[in-house]
Amino acid sequence: MIVADLQVSRVLRAVGVGRGPLPLVPPSGRYVVPGPDDAAPTVRRLARRAGHPGPVADRLVDALGTLRPWERAHVLDPLHRAEAPRPSADRAAPRDPAGAPGAGPDARFGEPLVLGRARAVQVDGTTCGSAVLAVLAAAGDPVVALWLVAGTDVSQGSCAHVVTEGAAGATARELETSSGRFAALQRLLKARTTHAALGPLPWPGSLGTPPWTAARDARYADVRYTHRIVPGAGDKDPVLASALRSAAAGVPVPLYTGGDVGTGWSTAVPRHVVLLAGVSPAAAGARGGPAELFGGRWCTVYEPSSGALHRLRVADLLEGARADREPSKAVRRALGGWPHVTWAVLPAGRAGGSRRVG
């Protein structure tokens, strides 16, 4: 490694920060993404897995029955994972005649991620992590997604990711719109992740969300998270391989991105957060390391500054993760304009259970 390739996260890892045994990957088949026409028992099971009691799950089923098809799809599959990831250029589509927002005019720059009628864009330069955590929560909890999409709170105030008037500065008027609800949830999550981030002390809000509090507060269904620094070893990187395996098992993974000393000391720290949302299925009998296991597969990355889903070859993402390589333009766009993946927030067992590592 030459000095220009230096990243602060790698220095921290060398002294023991953000390293340790990798968590076990979530079991395959447990976190299956529902389709928009899935039956009531599936929807109830999703709500119960996210920690909601039976009456809330029943109200969720009733509320979904009142939605238009595209709204229901936004609630049950906000990250569009029921469709196997493939190149964005294959996915451009006009606006649905029923009113569902469609893909943008130039799919090379990603497919807009829309919740209700609002594009899922971070509200300011410090809330990329908050936007990612909000989308992560919605993807794993249809009660949260229903509130974001339609404004209906079937939890009746009991859900920690549903913002009520007055919380996080939210006004009644703001909460009437999808964009307002998404903005309010970002502010709420930013307040949580900056609280008690340095022992009892808060994290400076101007610096966004640190990885350790993102891991502390991240939720997807009944999954909790931990964090690990990415060594930058490309297709041999164990942390990024774990992230890919988790996403392939149906559990999205927040990734921190940044630069290196070659572009200035201020860029050599984690600067942005994206969400590794999904990975296409493996070929039958695929085995081996990341290069063999993920060869020919595609992944989906949610990038909050553009509010878009980017579809990439996994091989390109792995190559771009190398500290000594310059990634492609497509990888840079998916990483929010930054060249490297520096930190990963990995699934670490089920909430209320032990943190299983191996």
Describe the structure.
Residues 78-94 have a biased composition (Basic and acidic residues). Residues 95-107 have a biased composition (Low complexity). Residues 78-109 are annotated as: Disordered. The chain is of the alpha+beta class. The protein has two domains: 1-31 and 80-112 and 220-358, no CATH class; 35-78 and 115-218, no CATH class. It has twelve helices and nine strands. The chain has helices spanning 8-14, 40-49, 54-64, 69-76, 128-140, 142-150, 178-194, 211-217, 238-248, 290-293, 314-320, 329-334; strands at 111-112, 114-115, 118-119, 223-229, 253-258, 270-279, 298-303, 308-313, 340-350. Strands 1-8-7-6-5-9-4 form a seven-stranded antiparallel β-sheet, sandwiched between helices. Helix 5 (128-140) crosses helix 6 and helix 6 packs across helix 7. It is globular, with a radius of gyration of 19 Å. The chain starts with 7 loop residues before the first helix and ends in an 8-residue tail after the last strand. 49% of the residues are buried.
